[in-house]
């Protein structure tokens, strides 16, 4: 069986082609390509512009994926698309493309929950059988564990997503959005030395980031570290970035210090709620999915925590962590295999679609 | 895989005879059973080891904050006469300095006998699943009435807690214990379904804080509601009973419950963007 | 009665035996206090006004706190014995702790505590010294005796627990348990 997966719930447009061999041997990724809409520094991506990006690239990407996969339209069994959650306009542009292909080629549609896509792809790639899942991206922050045919949400953010918090601080600092704001924060944070005091908000297995963002934005303002000019200074300084290395504590924080402190604080919170969920369900595996999951510091911290619990952490690289089409194909095909179809009349998308709404028929 | 070894006990418990027995490795604390200052009375020892994944400054700050805030909340509740374990001794300072020293903290508490509610409900759900076929409707009704009674007691215990000005911050069925009444026999019904007699005792105040805000109280209830939904699907439909027990336990309950509606709505709405 | 000195091996602190004696009708309180103030090392004891002690658990909690702080080099006062008196106090004021819990000229009932911080301090050495220096009636250090001595209202006042119900003479009294637990947490939390 071969499925095309189409993802466009945020600023990445991804097309993937997945083969589930009939003989039951492991699934194969035949193609996994992605094109990202990058907004200028200091700005987020707007739904309208992102949708326009997806519309203008989707045909090109589908063609390219088929070519890379060396399959023809006839080989394809179904078309899987992201039903939600996500931003309305980008979701719509992709679902329309999926419908068009379905009608054009006479293939059945499978609507997929974006979060479930991340989880199933992570499980496939890492081989983690029944992990606690930390799903962290620009739009989501959830701690999930499987129980009785649902991916149940044990903890989540009470306000903004962690990725959104990082992205928005990147905007404050005018850090480039290319390839991703979070990635550039991570690089800058590596030069950070001193930890500034930030709120730390964990409630049970839930957490909150809005107060932290307000606090660190305030610090950036107080120390005059925000804005375009400072960003330019940063670029000039990268050559001799070690000069600030042995500053004494309580000195004026640098932009790097703020990125460092922000990461240390929010990642500690994420690791803490994940550990809480692991203790609660008695699991020793952690799987990190979503764009923020490609942050190496987060992976490192999670690894230390898991090791101390006698367990291990599973993470994927940016090909599978960051939004992509193949994960939609994978989750879609699992549902397709159990007989699930999305009739044309129901092939809508929705901005709100909770992970635990999906009936996971393909697992025991 | 490497065999997991629990971290060594902090001083002075490395000199304790018999050595404290590790019961659980919770998310951020190890719980041991040991002896109180009176060797014939057992005690619970909660050790918060330093978390090596965290930045050391953040780690010390959080460890210290959490253990003292936990002990302060317990102290307040003890004074108010709420059913929580007594504080017997405490150490939040660690020792030996930041380099190579011990950056953890510990809290010695009264030992509470009895199972956690989580185990009671799990046993009950398993038992129901097993015996479903052989129970008639009045027996099923009777069984469910017992669970409703337990949920009501839980609600009432949480109400008394909130009335005293403390919110728990991490209400799950693992943090509520069922202490058998003194002199109660184990075989309450003889059917093999677990006993639900006794007092509900609240434990693990590691994320508790002092608050009289409806919002905090409502979040407490919401966290528990979700925890029950995810761990005890069969008992979840009876959550309303817990709410009723809560409502009847103190005057401020009504407005906290009103707030719970908002918190629930927000919870569903924050179903996020991709 | 040879000696009422009890030597306790505190749970978790087996290497530091604690010697405790309780006296009633003390005749030479002023003398003992004087020796203490003079810094006479022979008289390095925790001299506690026993009317300020609710129960054995109350006293041992303070001893435990002081000895544990001593072992980890965290004493706030001069030595482990002054620290025991200080540990009874719910606040960080050392002078106040001596006024409230320490021996005074008018102390009638006295609790004496000595910790074996060095090998020379043994049950025998402490017993002999106390016998020659304390003029009073040795009694058993137990809850029964303490219940006849403790001044509940003064204790409640010192710990700002005036709102708590007062214990009655009943055994297994809930009010006494609640008061005792409140004292123990105050001792554990002092300075936090």
UniProtKB/TrEMBL annotation, chain A:
Catalytic activity: L-threonylcarbamoyladenylate + adenosine(37) in tRNA = N(6)-L-threonylcarbamoyladenosine(37) in tRNA + AMP + H(+)
GO molecular function: metal ion binding; tRNA N(6)-L-threonylcarbamoyladenine synthase activity
Cofactors, names only: a divalent metal cation
InterPro entries: ATPase_NBD (IPR043129), Gcp-like_dom (IPR000905), KAE1/TsaD (IPR017861), Kae1_archaea_euk (IPR034680)
Annotated segments matching region Disordered: 227-250
Main location per the UniProt record: cytoplasm
Gene Ontology CC entries for this record: cytoplasm; EKC/KEOPS complex; nucleus
Note accompanying the cofactor annotation: Binds 1 divalent metal cation per subunit.
Binding site for a divalent metal cation: 114, 118, 135, 323
Keyword annotations: Activator, Acyltransferase, Cytoplasm, Metal-binding, Nucleus, Transferase, tRNA processing
Protein location: Cytoplasm; Nucleus
GO terms, biological process: tRNA threonylcarbamoyladenosine modification
SUPFAM superfamilies: Actin-like ATPase domain
Compositional bias per record (Basic and acidic residues), positions renumbered to this chain: 227-238
Pfam families, A to Z: TsaD (PF00814)
Domain spans labelled Gcp-like: 29-329
EC numbers on record: 2.3.1.234
Binding site for substrate: 135-139, 167, 182, 186, 295
HAMAP family xref list: Kae1
Family: Belongs to the KAE1 / TsaD family.
Protein name as annotated: N(6)-L-threonylcarbamoyladenine synthase
Native organism: Penicillium chrysogenum
From TrEMBL, chain B:
Residues of the Protein kinase domain: 17-274
Localisation: Chromosome, Telomere; Cytoplasm; Nucleus
Keyword DNA-binding: no
Transmembrane segments: none
Signal peptide extent: none
Protein origin, superkingdom: Eukaryota
Catalyses which reaction(s): L-threonyl-[protein] + ATP = O-phospho-L-threonyl-[protein] + ADP + H(+); L-seryl-[protein] + ATP = O-phospho-L-seryl-[protein] + ADP + H(+)
Primary localisation category: nucleus
Keywords assigned: Activator, ATP-binding, Chromosome, Cytoplasm, Hydrolase, Kinase, Nucleotide-binding, Nucleus, Phosphoprotein, Serine/threonine-protein kinase, Telomere, Transcription, Transcription regulation, Transferase, tRNA processing
EC number: 2.7.11.1
Pfam families: Kdo
BP GO annotations: tRNA processing; tRNA threonylcarbamoyladenosine metabolic process
Any one Gene Ontology cellular component term annotated for this protein: cytosol
Annotated GO MF terms: ATP binding; hydrolase activity; protein serine/threonine kinase activity
Gene3D superfamilies from the UniProt entry: Phosphorylase Kinase, domain 1 (3.30.200.20), Transferase(Phosphotransferase) domain 1 (1.10.510.10)
Sequence similarity: Belongs to the protein kinase superfamily. BUD32 family.
Subunit structure: Component of the EKC/KEOPS complex composed of at least BUD32, CGI121, GON7, KAE1 and PCC1; the whole complex dimerizes.
Role this protein plays: Component of the EKC/KEOPS complex that is required for the formation of a threonylcarbamoyl group on adenosine at position 37 (t(6)A37) in tRNAs that read codons beginning with adenine. The complex is probably involved in the transfer of the threonylcarbamoyl moiety of threonylcarbamoyl-AMP (TC-AMP) to the N6 group of A37. BUD32 has ATPase activity in the context of the EKC/KEOPS complex and likely plays a supporting role to the catalytic subunit KAE1. The EKC/KEOPS complex also promotes both telomere uncapping and telomere elongation.
Protein name: EKC/KEOPS complex subunit BUD32
Organism: Penicillium rubens (strain ATCC 28089 / DSM 1075 / NRRL 1951 / Wisconsin 54-1255)
TrEMBL record, chain C:
InterPro entries: CGI121/TPRKB, CGI121/TPRKB_sf
One term under GO cellular component: EKC/KEOPS complex
Coiled coil: none
Domain of life: Eukaryota
Principal location class: nucleus
A Pfam family this chain is assigned to: CGI-121
Example GO biological process: tRNA threonylcarbamoyladenosine modification
Subcellular localization(s) per the UniProt record: Nucleus
Function: Component of the EKC/KEOPS complex that is required for the formation of a threonylcarbamoyl group on adenosine at position 37 (t(6)A37) in tRNAs that read codons beginning with adenine. The complex is probably involved in the transfer of the threonylcarbamoyl moiety of threonylcarbamoyl-AMP (TC-AMP) to the N6 group of A37. CGI121 acts as an allosteric effector that regulates the t(6)A activity of the complex. The EKC/KEOPS complex also promotes both telomere uncapping and telomere elongation. The complex is required for efficient recruitment of transcriptional coactivators.
Family stated for the protein in its record: Belongs to the CGI121/TPRKB family.
Name of the protein in its database record: EKC/KEOPS complex subunit CGI121
């Amino acid at each position: 069986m071969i499925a095309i997966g189409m993802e466009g719930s945020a600023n990445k447009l991804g097309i993937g082609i997945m083969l589930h061999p009939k003989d039951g041997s492991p699934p194969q990724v035949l193609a996994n390509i992605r094109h990202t809409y990058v907004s200028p520094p200091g700005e987020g991506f707007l739904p309208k512009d992102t949708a326009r990006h997806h519309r203008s690239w989707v045909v090109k990407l589908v063609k390219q994926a088929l070519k890379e996969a060396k399959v023809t339209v006839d080989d394809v069994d179904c078309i899987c698309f992201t039903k939600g959650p996500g931003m309305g306009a980008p979701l719509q542009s992709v679902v329309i493309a999926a419908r068009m292909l379905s009608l054009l080629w006479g293939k059945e549609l499978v609507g997929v929950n974006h979060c479930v896509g991340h989880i199933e792809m992570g499980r496939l790639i890492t081989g983690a059988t029944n992990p606690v899942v930390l799903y962290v991206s620009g739009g989501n922050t959830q701690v999930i564990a499987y129980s009785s045919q649902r991916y149940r949400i044990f903890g989540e953010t009470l306000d903004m997503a962690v990725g959104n918090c990082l992205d928005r601080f990147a905007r404050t600092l005018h850090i480039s959005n290319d390839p991703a704001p979070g990635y550039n924060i991570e690089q800058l944070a590596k030069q950070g030395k001193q930890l500034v005091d930030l709120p730390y908000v964990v409630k049970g297995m839930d957490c909150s980031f809005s107060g932290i963002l307000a606090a660190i934005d305030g610090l950036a303002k107080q120390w005059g570290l925000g804005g375009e000019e400072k960003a330019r200074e940063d670029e000039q300084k990268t050559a001799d970035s070690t000069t600030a290395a042995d500053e004494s504590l309580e000195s004026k924080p640098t932009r790097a210090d703020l990125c460092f402190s922000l990461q240390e604080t929010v990642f500690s919170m994420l690791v803490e709620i994940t550990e809480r969920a692991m203790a609660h369900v008695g699991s020793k595996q952690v799987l990190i999915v979503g764009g923020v999951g490609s942050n190496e510091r987060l992976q490192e911290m999670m690894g230390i925590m898991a090791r101390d619990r006698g367990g291990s952490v599973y993470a994927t690289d940016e090909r599978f962590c960051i939004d992509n089409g193949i994960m939609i194909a994978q989750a879609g095909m699992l549902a397709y295999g159990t007989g699930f179809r999305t009739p044309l009349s129901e092939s809508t998308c929705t901005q709100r679609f909770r992970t635990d709404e999906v009936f996971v028929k393909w697992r025991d | 895989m490497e065999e997991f070894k629990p971290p060594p006990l902090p001083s002075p418990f490395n000199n304790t005879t018999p050595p404290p027995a590790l019961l659980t490795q919770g998310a951020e604390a190890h719980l041991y059973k040991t002896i109180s200052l009176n060797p014939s009375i057992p005690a619970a020892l909660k050790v918060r080891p330093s978390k090596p994944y965290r930045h050391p400054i953040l780690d010390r700050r959080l460890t210290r904050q959490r253990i003292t805030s936990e002990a302060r909340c317990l102290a307040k509740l003890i004074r108010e006469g709420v059913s929580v374990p007594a504080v017997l001794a405490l150490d939040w300072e660690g020792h030996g300095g930041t380099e190579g020293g011990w950056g953890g903290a510990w809290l010695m508490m009264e030992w509470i006998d009895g199972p956690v509610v989580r185990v009671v409900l799990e046993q009950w759900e398993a038992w129901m699943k097993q015996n479903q076929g052989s129970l008639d409707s009045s027996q099923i009704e009777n069984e469910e009435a017992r669970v409703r009674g337990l949920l009501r007691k839980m609600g009432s215990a949480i109400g008394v807690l909130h009335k005293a000005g403390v919110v728990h911050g991490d209400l799950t069925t693992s943090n509520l214990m069922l202490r058998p009444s003194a002199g109660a026999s184990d075989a309450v019904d003889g059917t093999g379904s677990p006993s639900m007699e006794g007092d509900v005792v609240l434990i693990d105040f590691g994320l508790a804080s002092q608050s009289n805000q409806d919002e905090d109280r409502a979040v407490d209830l919401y966290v528990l509601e979700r925890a029950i939904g995810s761990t005890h699907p069969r008992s979840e439909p009876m959550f309303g009973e817990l709410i009723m027990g809560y409502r009847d336990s103190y005057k401020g309950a009504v407005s906290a419950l009103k707030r719970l509606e908002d918190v629930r709505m927000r919870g569903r709405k924050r179903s996020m963007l991709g | 009665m040879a000696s009422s000195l009890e030597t306790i091996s505190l749970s978790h602190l087996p290497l530091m035996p604690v010697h405790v004696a309780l006296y009633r009708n003390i005749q030479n309180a002023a003398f003992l206090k004087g020796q203490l103030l003079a810094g006479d090392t022979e008289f390095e004891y925790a001299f506690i006004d026993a009317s300020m002690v609710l129960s054995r658990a109350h006293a041992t909690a303070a001893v435990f706190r002081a000895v544990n702080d001593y072992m980890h080099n965290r004493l706030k006062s001069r030595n482990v014995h002054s620290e025991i008196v200080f540990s009874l106090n719910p606040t960080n004021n050392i002078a106040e702790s001596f006024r409230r819990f320490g021996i005074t000229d008018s102390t009638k009932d006295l609790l004496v505590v000595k910790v074996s911080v060095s090998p020379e301090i043994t049950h025998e050495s402490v017993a002999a010294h106390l016998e020659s220096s304390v003029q009073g009636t040795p009694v058993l250090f137990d809850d029964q005796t303490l219940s006849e001595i403790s001044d509940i209202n003064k204790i409640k006042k010192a710990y700002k627990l005036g709102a708590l119900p007062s214990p009655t003479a009943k055994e297994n009294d809930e009010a006494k348990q609640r008061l005792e637990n409140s004292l123990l947490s105050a001792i554990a939390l002092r300075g936090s």
